[in-house]
Amino acid sequence: MVGAIGEVPVGCISVVRYGESFAFLGLYMLHPEFRGRGYGKQLWNKGMTLAGNRVVGLDGVVAQQDYYRRHGFETAYRTLRYAGIAKVPDLGDQAAQVVLVTNGKLEGLVHYDAGIFPGLRHSFIRAWCGAPERRTTFIVGGGSRVRGYGTIRRCFHGYKIGPLFANKPDVARALLARLLAEAEGAPVYLDVPVDNAQGIKLAEDCGLSPVFETARMYRGKAPEIPLDRVFGVTTLELG
Description:
Layout: E1 2-5, E2 8-18, E3 22-30, H1 39-51, E4 55-61, H2 65-70, E5 73-84, E6 98-100, H3 106-114, H4 122-129, E7 135-140, E8 148-154, E9 159-166, H5 169-183, E10 188-193, H6 197-205, E11 209-219, E12 230-232
Parallel strand pairs: 3-4, 9-10
Antiparallel strand pairs: 1-2, 2-3, 4-11, 5-10, 5-11, 6-7, 7-8, 8-9, 9-12
Helix pairs in contact: 3-4
């Protein structure tokens, strides 16, 4: 939602409701000229009203984390954004099994994602991974035997990778190799939970460096997420 004075937008906030028990807050921004006047608080209150009684997640920058704590959010883990011109690793033993996602593979991918992400996001995954003209998604396995998947998308400067979910580091490595090849030498960005030591190592092995830090924070009971399978967060704005 966007806050405006007349026809002049002053700020925005996004709250995505994934089912009846989980929501994710992002894109909370206010133009500097309109800060300190209560407009941000109005946006915040509207967003939290939309979330209702759901557990709410967000990725907070360091400067805003105290603000979120005052509103009932607690830190679950830290995330580092890695960036740079990547060295494409060897695909390894999984090379032949890394394939493009097609409509026939979306059902298995949706079920796999539900075992990692804390909310049901069937419609989102079908839109995010089923639009090859906007994003490219690779998968390892299929049906009930999916072992990982990853998506790369063009941004204003280079490419962002996310999600990058995999059961094992070697699967993540093979997926990342395919994804990085899509960037064709342009800068790439990958957000890795600090608790996933193998994910951090993989990013650094590819020549990427940490440039930015956030904290995953929740209002309510933090969901149990298998962070050892999260080698790249989907987005810091949508969860």
